[in-house]
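hi support,

uploading two proteins for the ticket. first:
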Amino acid sequence: MAALSPRSGRRARAALALVAASLTAAGTITPGTAAAAQQNIARVDDNGIAGEVVHFAGEGDTAASTTLFNLRLDGDSAVGAYCVDISSEVDHEAAYIEAAWEDAPEEGGFLEYAAEVNWVLRHSYPSLGLDRLRTRAGIPSLDTEQAIAGTQAAIWHFSNGVSLPDPGGEGPAASLEPGERRGRANSAEVRALYSYLTETAESTSEPAPSLTVEPERVSGTGASPLGPLTVRTTSAEPVQVSVSGAESAVIVDGSGTPVSVVRAGQEFFLRLEDEVPAGAAKVYAQAAKAKVEAGRLFIGKDGVSTQPLVAAERGTVAATASATVTWDLASASPSVAASPSAEAATESEAGPSRPEAATTPGPEPSSSSPVVIANDKQPERDLPLTGTWVGAIIIAGVTLVTAGVAALVLARRRRRN
């Protein structure tokens, strides 16, 4: 039996549950503090908005379903998000964290055209409202499903090298009126939006993270204030700062005055009392209302394997970031600076540097290495639910229930006679 997509699997489980419940009713079956440390965890809701199925150039009918995912940043804030790797599945149970594009899983292979993907996200739906997008792209009949499909297809063009067929290569679809579609061809609106986005895209820089503390690691001697540290944030309000792991430590500004809040770009230090033993502490920054910009990448926390998602609109989130501060009184140097080992650790954690963005459209797919489409993006073909094995299970269950009820009625009549 062919493997089921997650979507089909959920329907199958629901169908089986319905049958089991029905048979039970008929009397034929008898039923038998680490969390606090996790900051800025995002998750993918199940209520994404489906777009049209897109069909790719090449032999056969290679197609994929499209979705504008609902990425929940926290309990009060969510943003629309697209996937950037057609070959990966979304794990709805996975914890996501905001990350730089250079921190994306290496197997994704989509860093080369990240700058073009960022342009698409900032110039298409939903970052631009549907009416504005219709005007800019010159597609007055564009609807929401088509906007999602055209945008996702353009992203995959740059991130995975897939392309939609040229209008002349779609056969009868080349002459379709707006809103029309024959067979498995892309709708005229999806094709037009895809062409507009891929042909107009420019190299666009990655948006700033919602909150960071720089550098991530600082070391020095306990005899002097340790730092400087700097908060970078999209929040317009001051950011709260605190320290954990050193009871006698105090956060101070450049003049040595204790502070509990700092503004973006302001330098601050960690001051220790005299004769404190060598050790380490965490410095935390918390922003109540930081902005997550369109183009920010979200990946599985701690290397969890799941589809990388990219924010498609601006959102607001309560964010937390931290830096590690270490000190050693045995050090002979009174200066305070990031140690070579700390710099090496930071570089190692950050991953390889991002290559220069290309200014040309993404590569065309190779016939020798066809694109691999993840199971959760495999489109459900034109078979209705009752035409699948899931439908057959439901029908069989209803038939058994009916038979069971009939048998009970017949048995009661015999006892009465």
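and the second one:
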Amino acid sequence: MEASRRTTGDTERGDGTPLPWRRRLLTSADADELDLDSEGRPGRGRRTVRDWLVDFGCFLVAVFLGLILAEQVWDDPNTSDTLALVDQVIGALACAGVWVRRRWPLGFAVAMVPVGFVSNTASGAVMIAIFTLAVHRPFRYVAWVGGASIALVPIFFWLRPDPESTYALSVAFTVILTVTVVGWGMFVRSRRQLLMSLRDRALRAETEAGLRAEQAQRLAREAIAREMHDVLAHRLTLLSVHAGALEFRPDAPREEIARAAGVIRESAHEALQDLREIIGVLRAADHGEESGRPQPTLAALDTLVAESREAGMKVVLDNRVGDPDSVPASTGRTAYRIAQEGLTNARKHAPGAEVAVTVTGAPGDGLAITVTNPPPPGDVPHVPGSGQGLIGLTERATLAGGTLDHGQRPEGGFAVRAWLPWSG
């Protein structure tokens, strides 16, 4: 539950509207680092402390390089004082523009291309702009802007040669520096994308693990619900039928009343014991531990039929399986539950009718079980039922790899037929 809370608790804004999937996959720190706003788009409206420190550091680098280059501009005999002053003013404005690099990385970098061509003092801001573009935008933008900047380098040094260096050395050094800045920015971007991918995978794995846990819990609850129905419906139906008989026949012989009361007492005791076992499974810390009595198999079918006969039912059992203990436990348990549900439904909806239970099969051929009953001989007292038992049996047989069908017979009455696999 806590895991699902962590994966879904941050999916809404303060006003309750959902956040886009890109923002949901990241923590706030990672989303800020990747330059995503609240809509999952590039660009943000609020800087963190880390952002302020990084931006201030970039500003200082741009200013430091600008001061060094400004001194060279003043010392250049080929540059007039007016041009040197204009160069420094443009460079100062470019350094101030570093503070908007995070919000408009592409626009700032594009603007720095002509600025760097006319102002030598702005070279530091140009490098910061190219680095920011490489970090926050795809390579196609970096290629165009960086390529334009590199293409202007030979023209720049042809118009304004460096008095302390040769033309070729100045061009080569500036090109290598620009390519290095681009490579560094792309490395930072790749690292951040890797972090985003790892975060995405971790959150998806956490979400899937939570969903699998919830599905396992749901399947376990459904299995327990089916088991409770199969176990308790048989007992409680006995209680309902015999209590109804006592209600409608208060003048019955004393022996019949005593026998019905004994069946009611025994059925109530068995129902309580079965319920206690199921609750023990629910409370057990380890679901693999034994819950008490072993689960019934096909070998317990004779006991089930004898119990039904003691309750007053007419049951004919035709078990053609020579060695019921040789039937696999899961197959035998499913067959037992099918017979139990069939007898329970016959007792509720066709009291007094003779029920026939037939079991045939062999290893390799499968196990077939049929429960049939003719129409009831008289009036049928109303016994509540939801109809979920047969649905659960169909699902149980399907999960076991078999089939189950049920319905009215052409000659009247009802039939439940099932086939279960029995490997040789």
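thanks. also noticed: The chain has 13 helices and five strands.
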